[in-house]
Amino acid sequence: MAYPYVSEHEVRVLSRHFGDPQQRRIDTYVERGGYQALRKAFDMGPEKVIEEVKASGLRGRGGAGFPTGVKWSFMPKDSGRPHYLLCNADESEPGTFKDRELIRWDPHQLIEGCLIGAYAIGAGHVYIYCRGEFFEVNQILARAVEDAYAKGYIGKDIMGSGNDLELTVHQGAGAYICGEETGLMNSLEGRRGQPRVKPPFPAAVGAFGMPSTINNVETLAAVTHIVDNGGEWYRQYGTEKSPGTKLFCVSGHVRKPGNYELPLGFPLTQLIEDVCGGMRDGNALKAVIPGGSSVPIINAEEASRCSLDYEGCVEVGTMLGCASVIVMDETTDIVKQVRRMVDFYAHESCGQCTPCREGSAWTAKILRRIEDGRGTEEDLDVLMEMTQQMVGTTICVLSDSVAAPVQSSITKFRDEYLALIRRGERVGAA
Amino acid sequence: MSDVPFKNPGWAGNTGEFDLSEEQVRGDDFVGDRPRDGGHASGAGTLPYMLAEKAPEAPLFEGEYRERFEKILTRYPTKQAALLPTLAMAQEVRGHLSPESMDRVAELLELSPAYVRGVATFYTMYNKRPVGRHLVQVCTNISCNLNGADEVVEAFLRYTDTELGETSKDGNFTVIEAECLAACGFPTCVQINSRYFENVTPDQVARICEHLKSQGE
Fold first, then answer.
1. Which segments within A178-281 are labelled E, that is strand?
2. A289 to chain B: which residues are within 8 Å by CB?
3. Which domains, from first to last, does chain B contain?
4. Do B20 and A324 touch (CB under 8 A)?
């Protein structure tokens, strides 16, 4: 059976072998040119690898969009201490499902990217922190790592190059906050996954107190192709400021949800209409969350002029995040969905910072009251004011992520809140 | 989602329709079950620990499990870093983490029992009390919710005749709501023990449950 989530608009670089179970076999991977990029990286030397990644303009695919090459160059040279590369595979952002697909269809692509990254930053050990719920993904990954060890692509004196690299798959245990970089480090060290105060930044004091870099699965998978084909090649896709391809995870009310790899800067309307086959049942579009549940909601008008790159999303008042496009049609009960998202953040708050711990729970409580038809108009003012106090006042940005859907939905869909408040009536289907 | 023209080729045909063989999805050399001693040390901490077979009194960290524990220790610069994999192993053997199991882990890793409990309670995947043979976790977060996840939860509760978070009388099912399982394109996603079932609709729930019971899995 062919992999069904394909479209003629796609540029399949990372997702090229999605749907082909043979790709997981190390022999097949090597036959198709695998581990050549690693060999090339060893020939180039660490500094040239970093330069090449810088030249490609690759930006972190985990959500923040920070240039990867620049991040790598923050690592100290000759510190005399062990360095670590951490791969963030703790994919938990509601709406995001790309890393799971990337690992389960093409684990060696990620492993190769991890090894190149580790070599570039002088790390001797890579930890892939894989989400706990991904049992079968973990099995595939662990199996692939084992195969790579057996064939000499990981371990001592890799391919006769004299380079030693270790790689360990670490399984999480169910906590959204462990996807935050310092939360992940704490979790890896056997602590509660509570984010750390920065500075010091991970490049100075990271995992186990040592200089560390943390990259998303998709970022490291892209590194494999950048080193293989050159930074200039990568720049042929995407826009000047957001080069390359990106996996767009489309979910919600479209006919064909799924992962689609497209050049950055692709128009959102075209993604919904052409790539995903349009809205289900021919319904009208009501709202889109373009970057996972932590970014502001946009309405249909804003969506119509949104181009899917880091800058294009900012222009319409939202963020690209990890490009998890959640599409909502006219039947959607916005208040209910916002409340569900806030419930999530209230559940996942690690509890360190008061604005987040208390604020997320209060926000959920007020939203539930409004949803049940017991709200007042003043509640909306309270929500706006309270969530404003949750922005930028905490150690990590989980708190800000509560404010994004609440504030944007009250601004853009105030009528729906008011309808519930005035008549206890719900807009859209129950 | 009735007008979606295809089925999701999820894990082992876990689409609710059971229309794909494991080989078709995974490739013919996929090894689903890694050895209990953990195999290569690089992946020793990654075995499924949400299994249907639960033996609350089974010995901890003996034989193959002891070997796996030793392998895990070699992968980290500190002993404490082995805490999550070790807790996971205890749950794999006994089905949940009792206070006794946590104390045993604390002893092994030279941590205080209070510290270990503090960490264990932070993470949702450690069952702090016994659960049914099949732990049914229905994602009700936004993308699944937009596609009727609430009805799927209701269908599971109706079929198993139980309350949210409780275990059915026959001990087969515990049904809970889960946060986003990262399968948003294939709603509704349901994790049952270690497996994902994708594109689940309420009318498939009875068949999935029957299937699980008949497999004795």
1. 212-216, 245-252, 258-263, 266-267
2. 142
3. 41-120 (1.10.10), 131-215 (3.40.30.10)
4. no
